């Protein structure tokens, strides 16, 4: 190690004396060569000088070790944040009023349109698993993001063309008063092909862009590690800023029947996002894909099952681990052995048959697995209880786009002669997200660090997710109280009950603000948690877990509403959520959700206290462990 450094120093001195005019070029060349040598040795500790390579194993676009000063960090991170904002604007430019498009343009019933939108939304998040799998296994995050963004743009172009040329007939139809004509089956087929291409493109792109943005910061470096944590907050902020424009300006034009303009603006935004993303190609840092994780997962289960009668002695001497030469980790940090799920350790136990196979130079991967591979499976199993506890939060979050809007429509929505679209109240959610991200990053986190007298990053991810559940309970209680007062000032005998209560829609602001605050703690914490705790091979899968939580939240919410209506409509009662909310008890449904979320919080605390954080072997021989995740 020291010999290499002395050679480099002497070479630098000779070049300085003999070729002063070429000093800059040769200095860069020597620094790059030193970076390659140090990367191969993998034992350097501490801070590198300017021009050195990253410590986390990332590479540049050419597959060479990434130079710290010439790649990643906030230059690449800012490009990705702008890309996320533009892509989100494009996606919600379609999704925010899709149910209205189906009813006004395609002449579907309210129930049919709502069902189709639910299926489409759920499909978006299911496709996130597809994108995560391809990214972690074969394509890598950059290639996956680029390909799925192209699919996203193609889908938006198809939707814009189909709407402009075929669906919006007669011209000017699709507003509140003018219904569109009938459409042929191929026109409707083109529409569905387009929106499901949008679902595929956005779904496959979303989990990877968050992880790819985090890849631009070397967590082995103290300063960049803090920036990586901050990135997730700004990423969620960019997402909300993009959706704010869609929910207000684009939503207004589409509600007025100017659908083609709304869709073309979304298309232009998605195209700009793609161009911006590709423009940063030379600046990005990359992790190489590491092969199919499903086969590795199954290998551990099969190998452990084959040895179910084997008694594994204490200690790690009898457990198999690949040598550095044999290892196929491809820059991934090895996970240190833990004592949970001991049954799976059988997969790494070296039996007499395994020893004979090793002597012949052959190893059956379905018979013997390295202990680091076993630990990958353990990591996923430990994450699942935490993930399951987040689904009920997503049920609460889903109400903002459904029952909150219906509740708002039954309130006083006018100020003078101006009518407030009930869906636009979600702007207060977005403003709350922005405010609480600022409060947490600038006030709460530093205050917690000062109180604890440590150089920590504030509250741990699990603690923040727990706080998110508490605030979600407050949001449901607030919504229930508002509904009680709305019913108090409502007319019961109305046929069309929009605006039938004299209670102003602005009384909904607290429940939207609570939801926004809870998102900052829950969803941002969730992104950070799954990214930090997922094995290096499965980082995109960790981000996909966040999206599948939202997807399942939609499905569970639909199931819960169906069950509540079936039970509450017995004995010829109108039910809690009838078509005429003035005859129902939406407040009871909100209080039910508050109670269920409270129970979920208790279970979550138990799971969080049980959870043991991942233990990693540092890139350069150091043992690293994530922050203490106890609640």
Describe the structure.
It is a multi-pass membrane protein. The chain crosses the membrane at residues 7-30, 74-102, 123-140, 146-168, 231-252, 258-278, 383-405, 425-444, 465-482, 512-532, 544-569, 589-611. Its main location: membrane. With 631 residues, the protein is mainly α. Helices cover 64% and strands 2% of the residues. It has four domains: 2-70, no CATH class; 71-289, Growth Hormone, Chain: A (Up-down Bundle); 293-369, no CATH class; 380-612 and 626-631, Up-down Bundle (Growth Hormone, Chain: A). A two-stranded antiparallel sheet has the order 1-2. Strands 3-4 form a two-stranded antiparallel sheet. The protein is globular. The protein starts with a helix and ends in a 6-residue tail after the last strand. Residues 1-50 and 619-631 have low confidence and may be disordered.
Task: Show the helix and strand layout.
Elements: H1 2-18, H2 23-41, H3 73-95, H4 98-104, H5 110-139, H6 141-167, H7 185-215, H8 222-255, H9 259-279, H10 293-306, H11 352-359, H12 371-398, H13 403-409, E1 414-415, E2 418-419, H14 426-452, H15 461-488, H16 509-533, H17 539-568, H18 586-610, E3 615-617, E4 623-625
Antiparallel strand pairs: 1-2, 3-4
Helix pairs in contact: 1-2, 3-7, 3-8, 3-9, 4-5, 5-6, 5-7, 5-17, 6-7, 6-9, 7-8, 7-17, 8-9, 8-14, 8-16, 12-15, 12-16, 12-17, 12-18, 14-16, 15-16, 15-18, 16-17
